[in-house]
Design goal:
The protein is 49% helix and 13% strand. By secondary structure, the protein is α/β, with parallel strands linked by helices. Helix 2 runs antiparallel to helix 3, helix 2 packs antiparallel against helix 5 and helix 4 crosses helix 5.
């Protein structure tokens, strides 16, 4: 415990900013992402599945009807039950975020420590609203956000992280990326020369990455924790 505390403290002392993922890092929500729900519902495959998946996560929709119109524009024929499916998915996700225990206290701790805070997330608009309603205090504490539905691209696109670095005004080496997904959070952050903290809130979804790291085939993050509250180990 003491060794972990020392490592955490040294890591936090070495950075001026912390970038935080949202889903499964600060809040828990549906087990299946909305883009996968929609791709699965319409049985899309290949290029069509990729195109629609990006559409869902990288478009600033104002309502479920906008999603339906965008799908129609992309060549998908919707009947009344399809529209009901999209509408229900939208409304369900507007109320689906559940705060992770210790997340608010950890963000408060980071803010008190003088860190510049940013939210970096692949997320669509209804679930982001669910997050802001579930965690209004966290929303108020962060300095900026880079959200896929607002910027039009998503992780692990290097441009996503470059934009966040630019917004922070910090050098990459003085930034800590905190996220639960190795290939979307940790690996691209390391490629951008940031420090990394891997939150294994869903280890069953990270088995391949865990094996790769353990066998030294994949780069090891600076810190690996079971939950975000472990970042307060220095206290």
């Amino acid at each position: 415990m003491g060794h972990c505390t020392t490592r955490t403290e040294k890591l936090l002392d070495s950075v001026d900013g912390v970038f935080l993922d949202i889903g499964s890092t600060l809040v828990m929500g549906p087990h299946v992402s909305p883009n996968k729900e929609i791709v699965g519902h319409f049985a899309l495959e290949g290029e069509a599945a990729s195109r629609v998946s990006r559409l869902i996560m990288c478009t600033n929709f104002g309502a479920a009807a906008d999603v339906c119109n965008a799908l129609t524009t992309n060549g998908i024929v919707l009947n009344s039950s399809d529209r009901e499916f999209v509408s229900k998915l939208w409304s369900d996700q507007e109320d689906a975020a559940v705060p992770i225990e210790g997340a608010l206290e950890t963000v408060q701790f980071l803010k008190r420590s003088g860190k510049k805070l940013g939210l970096l997330s692949d997320i669509w608009s209804p679930y982001y609203r669910a997050f802001t309603q579930a965690c209004p205090e966290i929303s108020d504490l962060v300095d900026f956000c880079v959200l896929s539905f607002e910027v039009g691209f998503k992780k692990p696109d290097p441009a996503f992280f470059e934009l966040a670095i630019s917004k922070s005004g910090l050098t990459p080496a003085r930034i800590l990326m905190v996220g639960d997904t190795y290939d979307k959070d940790i690996e691209p952050a390391m490629a951008a020369h940031m420090k990394t903290a891997w939150v294994l809130s869903r280890p069953e979804r990270e088995v391949a990455a865990l094996v790769g790291v353990i066998q030294n085939h994949w780069a090891r993050p600076d810190l690996t924790v079971a939950q975000i509250s472990d970042l307060q180990a220095a206290t």
